[in-house]
Design a protein that fits this description.
single chain, 391 residues, mainly alpha, 20 helices, 0% strand
Length: 391
């Protein structure tokens, strides 16, 4: 047998070549092991290209949402949920599901009827699965209020995780990350938007002043749906979800603030008095979105201007039960039961706030009683009224 000499170029290369460097997929797989390295996973999900592909996301998203899919699911599997009482919003769910999957997944145009029918059949199957996931979550947690746009979020989870695993993920998302949007009032959602002027003031006071006549409601559709309503490319929305699930819930608001900052020159071309035009322009996301640059700059914006330092006492005005405050730091240790408890506390706070506003209106209506005696009577009547409302 002929042996290779030490100077054989081929054999020498085989001996000295180093192992191939690990790919990002390998890195993510390693940190998603039996004992996940959450800090490393957050960094990888935030860095360029995020979690790379859906196969990796199927392992990583549950970790980022704070649950282990290998454990007993916290939501009814199989058909048992169908025996639960109907949710009050199921009619609206049906209407929204009917107009879902408009942008993705893309279906190829076919000239053969059989192939076209198959495409239509696949779309119908996806819509049926989407309806099942949303209805299953709502019936299991009937206190949640459905909002238009929730289906945009859920369809991304359905496409990434599949019909069997999506309900668990969506339940954790609803109760720990977007709980404010599923309360019986829109006011907590609007509270998110009121942080935008404070963030802009902290970073660019001149731009903030330019937009001061325009209410930040232009950001509602985007922030409410985690941008799934506006981003038309599947790979882009999946990548953005990697980032948003890895970061604190409030980072979604900073992301919109960074979009505004990136359009600075365009916005200064519009008169500050033309609030209608500014609202129209800001309500439409620029296309295409440079996601990687926006994500990088959003993190810098967030680190340079953390919520606690924002002007106008903006952070102090946020409810302590809001996901903006509870979905930070160690929120992944929260259970679904914790989410339900925070939901109920926030509902009570909303009711108290509503009664307080009604009480102010009542005092204003009777603001001219005859002297202190009259005032005492009004206060006494008001106390009885509030007690009855509470009971």
């Amino acid at each position: 047998m002929q042996s290779s000499s030490p100077d054989d170029p081929v054999k020498s290369h085989e001996r000295t070549s180093a192992p191939a460097p690990p790919t990002k997929v390998d890195e993510i797989s390693n940190v998603c092991g039996e004992i996940p390295d959450l800090e490393a996973l957050v960094q990888l999900a935030t860095s360029r290209d995020g979690l790379v592909n859906d196969q990796v996301r199927q392992r990583a998203w549950p970790i980022l949402l704070g649950y282990d899919p290998s454990q007993n699911p916290e939501i009814e599997r199989g058909a048992a949920w169908k025996n639960l009482p109907l949710h009050k919003d199921e009619d609206q769910v049906a209407r929204d599901v009917d107009r879902s999957f408009i942008y993705y997944p893309k279906t190829t145009s076919c000239t053969v009827n059989a192939n076209a029918d198959q495409s239509e059949s696949q779309l119908d199957r996806r819509k049926a699965d989407l309806s099942t996931v949303i209805t299953q979550v709502l019936r299991t947690y009937p206190m949640l209020s459905y909002f238009q746009g929730f289906h945009d979020i859920v369809q991304v989870f359905l496409l990434v995780l599949g019909a069997d695993d999506a309900p668990d993920a969506v339940s954790h998302l609803a109760l720990s990350r977007i709980r404010d949007f599923m309360l019986p009032s829109l006011s907590p959602s609007l509270a998110h938007l009121r942080l935008l002027p404070a963030i802009l003031q902290a970073e660019d006071a001149k731009l903030c002043e330019h937009l001061s006549q325009t209410q930040p409601f232009f950001a509602l559709a985007s922030t409410l749906t985690l941008y799934a309503h506006d981003i038309e490319d599947y790979s882009d929305i999946a990548r953005l979800f990697d980032f948003l699930l890895a970061q604190d819930a409030i980072v979604s608001v900073y992301f919109f603030a960074e979009i505004i900052l990136s359009r600075r020159e365009e916005l200064f071309e519009i008169s500050s008095d033309d609030s209608d035009m500014l609202h129209f322009v800001l309500s439409k996301l620029p296309k295409p979105l440079d996601l990687e640059t926006l994500i990088e700059r959003t993190m810098s914006l967030y680190m340079d201007n953390p919520p606690e330092t924002l002007p106008y006492q903006a952070w102090a005005r946020i409810s302590p039960y809001s996901v903006l405050k509870t979905a930070r730091a160690d929120f992944r240790q929260q259970t679904l039961s914790d989410g339900i408890d925070l939901f109920q506390r926030q509902v009570i706070q909303l009711r108290n706030d509503e009664m307080r506003e009604q009480a102010k209106a009542m005092l204003w209506k009777y603001r001219r009683p005859a002297g202190q005696v009259g005032l005492a009577i009004v206060v006494g009547v008001l106390a009885i009224w509030l007690r009855k409302k509470w009971l």
